[in-house]
Amino acid sequence: MKKIVIASLAAGSLLSLAQAADVTTAMLKNAATSTDSVLSFGIGSEGQRYSPLAQVNTKNVGKLVPAWSFSFGGEKQRGQESQPLIYKGKMFVTASYSRIFAIDLKTGAKLWKYEHRLPDGIMPCCDVVNRGAALYGNLVIFGTLDAQLVALDQDTGKIVWKEKVDDYAAGYSMTAAPLIADGVLLTGVSGGEFGVVGRVEARNPLTGDLLWTRPTVEGHMGHRYDKDGKEFDNGVTGTLNKSWPGDLWKTGGASTWMGGTYDAKTGLAYFGTGNPAPWNSHLRPGDNLYSSSTVALDVKTGQIKWAYQNTPNDSWDFDGANEFVTFDMDGKRYGGKADRNGFFYVIDANSGKLQNAFPFVKKITWASGIDLKTGRPNFIAANRPGDPTKGEEGKKGTTVFSAPAFLGAKNQMPMAYSQQTGLFYVPANEWGMDIWNEPISYKKGGAFLGAGFTIRPLFDDYIGALRAVDPKTGKIVWEAKNTAPLWGGVMTTGGGLVFYGTPEGFLKALDAKSGKELWKFQTGSGVVAPPVTWQDGDTQYVAVVSGWGGAVPLWGGEVAKKVNFLEQGGSVWVFKLSSK
């Protein structure tokens, strides 16, 4: 592996550097309660996206005005899905095409920019997006579209270390924000539509050195690494060929493309896994572990402590990569997950035992419900796309109309959990698809689908809906409908507010209890990113990235046609209360 490492990271100085680090393990452990910074994706590693700040609240949010705005510039726009990080007077924000900026918090002036040199042959499935970075020591670390990890000096933007994660020519890429869990850097991989093999990697965040790898497709060997980089076997994931037939496990997908969360209370990291490959499920009878699942990992060893599969033998590209957000309920630690398949799951965060599962969208056709005793879905057999070998001349299987569509009841846009209300705030979409299977064979770097599809909206008046969900009862407490699909994340605060953005360009604030809209601002392009908030001195700020794009305009079929009037962009907006 090629690596660029500054001289001060020589072995003898690693300990002193770690001790003198700016961002420490202890700080990241308490990131969710820190109000003067935003140190990790999800606001805290648990992913609740809840801030205790209350200076901006339901009574005065109408006075929120822009403090400054910063343009990412150039011709490289497309989708902007990044969550900013805030630390020591700087904002660190990634942008499309594997760029990252450091911005002065007080003035909005650019301090430095790093623009990763991308090869011509990159193949991201769902736009040239990047969702954010991680902070550790004096480093800011992010992944690139050609499947590399880059660590930069926070003050200068100079490269400290750089590591190749995998081969972009084989379909691998990276779009998620890295996760720091108990001092360990955890990352996933993107590329499930190209027959990659999903995995989680653990590294030393100061050097980039590998600690362990854990594949998320059954049958692949995990590895650990000593201080000299020597590789040792660390156990096969699952049991070879137990849930995968033949050799399909070798190109089985299950990419960990959304990254993970970490809970210090359980000591576990939680990664969602994507669709099995190819989409044509008739080629791979069996559950196809550990695709479309939540996998709980021991951070120190890389061993799977438990796994829960949301969609066994996935035939609809529902994935299971959605975030697993841990929270307290009835004196126990649970995790909530709004899956692309349309069901919201409440799972014991320590054991993986299913507590509850219920729909959070209005139309689900592939299953009639989830059996709470077995944890398995009650499949509706007639809604599985047909076997192409039984179709006319073996070219195409029977077409079915399925809901949700493969872009999911919820996709990459992260939800939020309020410690005030005990509710989850889920950006949901109501759409379906005509889907059929086709013959397919694997070719390195080529699309590995074996399916065709057309997405259609289910209702005339809306597609997106922000829904307040009670994890105990399964009740939708309120909803705020939106004409276009929702594709940006959510934040909730101690001020009783829920912030989220829309493709039409608005950042909005709603009352967390009632769903009443209290404020909105037009950012000039679609918002497909999650907001953050922090306090500097005696002033609370709110920020969001604006820039329409992502998977909807690329894959959305009839839905894409409905929103093709939306303009691209690339900027970050920062707001504060007006002094008038």
Give the helix/strand class.
Answer: mainly beta
Strand content: 35-45%
Radius of gyration: 22 Å
**Could you give me the name of the CATH homologous superfamily?**
Quinoprotein alcohol dehydrogenase-like superfamily
Shape: globular
| CATH topology label | Methanol Dehydrogenase, Chain A
State the helicity in percent bands.
Answer: under 10%
Second CATH tier, the architecture: 8 Propeller
Instruction: Report mean pLDDT, rounded to a whole number.
Output: 93
Strand order of the largest sheet: 11-12-13-14-15-16
Largest sheet: 6 strands, antiparallel
Q: Between the first and last Cα atoms, what is the distance in angstroms? A: 57 Å
What is the C-level CATH assignment?
Mainly Beta
**Count of β-strands:** 40
Poorly predicted spans: 1-21
User: What is the domain total for the residues?
Assistant: 1
Query: What is the number of helices?
Result: 4
Account of the protein in words:
By secondary structure, this protein is mainly beta. It has one domain: Quinoprotein alcohol dehydrogenase-like superfamily (Methanol Dehydrogenase, Chain A), CATH 2.140.10.10. It is built from four helices and 40 strands. The chain has a six-stranded antiparallel β-sheet. A hairpin with a 4-residue loop joins strand 35 and strand 36.
